[in-house]
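User: tokens in, sequence out, please.
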């Protein structure tokens, strides 16, 4: 079988394309053979010229390559910009959220570090029902700190100069009994402001089941996760 190079293959394709062109020309320009041959030759020459300019021209291919590189570079730059933005945005967001959570959960007796051993001066325990001496509401203890742990702004507002000493006394986190009609649902108070309520005192609060599994007649029974934090209460 004879070997056909690229140039020969291209010539064959051009010649074959002339056949349907000639048929088309015969339909629109009459049946005169000399006229058809002349028009066909002009058509082939024009087609070949257009083909060489668009497909075989080095400048045409260089322009196509520049355009493709330009689009590729633009897409790449946009993609990198999006990736950098997403990385920055979500990383920044995650850092802020993480820092906020860490700060929030270290305040107001919400830290999950284990309270062991329990100091002797912590007189009350998680699960005990209390009453506030001044405001009169009842509630249940869900956590304590050996001294006040809260944002400095909160401490300054809560304790004016005359009461600064209270910051270094035990503080308790309270779920306030909704039945009292008190405006707040939780409180963080020093030990001297509360007293234990003996006997049956039902505390109504939407978070009770999250902290406690029941009531044993003297205090509420901690959920296992809470008992791990306060093993001696």
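Assistant: Sequence out:
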């Amino acid at each position: 079988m004879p070997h056909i190079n690229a140039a020969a293959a291209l010539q064959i394709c051009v010649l074959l394309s002339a056949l349907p062109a000639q048929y088309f020309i015969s339909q629109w320009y009459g049946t005169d053979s000399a006229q058809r041959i002349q028009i066909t030759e002009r058509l082939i020459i024009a087609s070949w010229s257009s083909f060489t300019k668009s497909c075989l021209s080095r400048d045409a291919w260089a322009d196509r390559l520049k355009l493709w590189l330009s689009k590729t570079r633009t897409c790449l730059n946009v993609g990198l910009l999006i990736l950098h933005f997403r990385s920055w945005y979500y990383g920044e967001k995650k850092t802020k959220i993480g820092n906020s959570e860490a700060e929030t959960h270290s305040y107001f007796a919400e830290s999950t570090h284990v309270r062991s051993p329990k100091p002797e001066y912590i007189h009350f325990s998680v699960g005990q029902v209390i009453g506030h001496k001044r405001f009169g509401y009842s509630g249940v203890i869900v956590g304590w700190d050996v001294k006040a742990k809260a944002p400095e702004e909160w401490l300054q507002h809560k304790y004016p100069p005359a009461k600064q000493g209270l910051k270094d006394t035990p503080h308790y986190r309270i779920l306030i009994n909704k039945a009292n009609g008190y405006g707040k649902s939780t409180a963080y108070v020093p030990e001297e402001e509360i007293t234990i309520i003996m006997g049956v005192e039902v505390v109504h609060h939407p978070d009770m089941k999250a902290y406690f599994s029941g009531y044993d007649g003297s205090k509420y029974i901690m959920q296992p996760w809470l008992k791990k934090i306060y093993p001696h209460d």
